User: What shape does this take?
Amino acid sequence: MRRALLGLASVMALPLAFYACAGDDPAAPGPKPLSYAASETSAPPDAAPADTGAIVGGCSQADFDAPAGLFGGDFTAQPNVDVTFPTGSAPMPYTNRCAKVKVGSTVTFKGSFFHHPLQPSGGDEPTPIVLTSFDPDGGSLVVTMPVKGTYGYECMFHPSIMLGAIQVVP
Ligand SMILES: [Cu+2]
Assistant: This one.
């Protein structure tokens, strides 16, 4: 009976961890302990993260590795990922804000760049994400990701609410 309960607990930890990563407030350090509990039982929660564990744009490695969903995750199976944000002036978090893609793929930013100017923020340099404060032709900005690395971005006006990162892998 005890064994069955333990099994149930470990099965339930996965969706819990994903939910916490996907829906976390980027300002809060919330999801870390849950991620460790789900995958690295030997590592204490406060251990220094590995070099792949640096948080850029409010995104942890667990966020990039999560199954692709509205809040981001692993999009390496797709040649493009859309990152959308409001067309009005009220701030809202980017969709797919923590996305992992393959080298050579594209990220398409869609929203009002006038109300939410996009700018690079943290991560590796040089970044393929350039400051964009006017709506491009067609209303979306397509950024090709030529080099592996992790590239943070944010809205110039609402960086505490609108932030994210693209992790580019070989
Ligand atoms: Cu904004």
About this structure: The two ends are 45 Å apart (CA to CA). The chain has a mean pLDDT of 79.
